[in-house]
Amino acid sequence: MNKFHGTGVAMVTPFDQDGSIDFQGLKKLINFQIDGGVDYLVSLGTTGESATLTKEEKKSVWKFTAEIINGRVPLIAGLGGNNTREVVEGLKQFDPNGYDAILSVSPFYNKPTQEGIYQHYKVLAQESPLPLFIYNVPGRTGSNVAAETTIRLANECKNIIGVKEASGNIEQFYAILRNKPKEFLCISGDDALTLPLIAMGGNGIISVAGNAIPRLFSNMVRLCLKGDFKQAAPLNLRLTKFISLLFEEGNPGGVKSALQHLGICTDHLRLPLYPVGQTTSLAIKKELENLV
What we know:
- By secondary structure, this protein is an alpha/beta fold.
- The protein is 47% helix and 13% strand.
- The protein has a single domain (2-230), classed as Aldolase class I (TIM Barrel, Alpha-Beta Barrel).
- Pyruvate binds at residues 47, 206.
């Protein structure tokens, strides 16, 4: 379980101008993350624009990513949806070779009840070939996984090992920490809340900003996990403006702009997502230069 302490990065999926997957850009991104000292990586989470990829494209990205990483850091696959049967079928077809866990976003659009969310994850836990993380991100899904539901799943489904909590609700994070089983992992899904959530007892972050600033971000997280908030706090403050800019016009448009300025990959996205405007892009570039 310790392999998922620290900084995980939800990687973007680089695209060429024609919209095809830029595998060389993905290779550069993977190596940039590992050289930057991140603790683990996430392939095809929501930041990876997974909703716009076909099943065959996802298989290609997962296979390529595992081959390039080659066991150098732990690896999580993002695999979720709002049709439980379809997600189960995806789990059955998923090749777990090279992967350590599954991150599954809570069902979106349908707005299920808490019992529906519980039953959804219970089925996934039974079918998953790997340990499973709940991913709660109400801003994207339109529904919240209540703390009580997370705790119920943590206690009753041994294959569910943690939650990526991106509700932005500090009280909810407190409630999970108070009542969770000892080994159950609480991971922040909000870059800007990383320091306070670790201070509360969280195990780290699955980051967007880490795509562009892996070394700075992972250094800050390590200081927090060591309890050295005296050094971590000034570093965290240095990062706050950059993090804010990354989300100014939506994710992953902002971080892809940063990666283009770094020469890692282009800022191309798949519709309906669209690159950030010039003003935001230049502000991101300026702040990135201040950081690196």
